[in-house]
Design goal:
The chain has 120 residues and is α+β, with helices and mostly antiparallel strands. The chain has a single domain (2-115), classed as Dimeric alpha+beta barrel (Alpha-Beta Plaits, 2-Layer Sandwich). The protein is built from three helices and six strands. The protein has helices at 11-15, 19-38, 89-98, and strands at 2-9, 42-47, 55-60, 63-68, 77-85, 106-111. Strands 2-5-1-6 form a four-stranded antiparallel beta sheet. This is YCII-related domain-containing protein. InterPro entries: Dimeric_a/b-barrel, YCII. Residues 1-114 form the YCII-related domain.
């Protein structure tokens, strides 16, 4: 089963991290990805631009509204993800706990629905 590990962190705190510390953190993330690859669990991963470059689009009737970011008044923002392929939620949670991002933010774990779940 595929799971998305959504990495949430405080963008403001991230901006204050010294470049050498950020390089060390990114090295930890790369090592984590290599561990996922070695376990044949890695599917994909990407980092996202900051919430100040995001927008939210809503359509109500014929009215389209676009709100430029940051659009949520929360401490932690969604900043990147890993998609993994593992046996079950327990294994996905174990991988999430190993993710370095869990030490400076949170990692939300969600199963990705299989296309067959939409058949009806």
């Amino acid at each position: 089963m595929r799971y998305m590990l959504m990495l949430h962190a405080d963008e403001a705190a991230g901006k204050s991290i010294a470049p050498e510390d950020m390089a060390r953190f990114m090295g930890q993330m790369y090592a984590y990805q290599q561990a996922l690859e070695k376990a044949a669990a890695f599917v994909s991963s990407n980092a996202l631009v900051g919430s100040s470059e995001a927008s939210v689009v809503r359509v109500q009737g014929n009215e389209v509204s676009v709100l430029d970011g940051p659009y949520a008044d929360v401490r932690e923002q969604f900043g990147g993800y890993f998609i993994i392929d593992v046996a079950d939620m327990d294994e996905a949670n174990k991988w999430a706990a190993r993710c370095p991002a869990a030490s400076w933010g949170t990692v939300e774990v969600r199963r990705i629905r299989d296309a067959s779940e939409y058949a009806g």
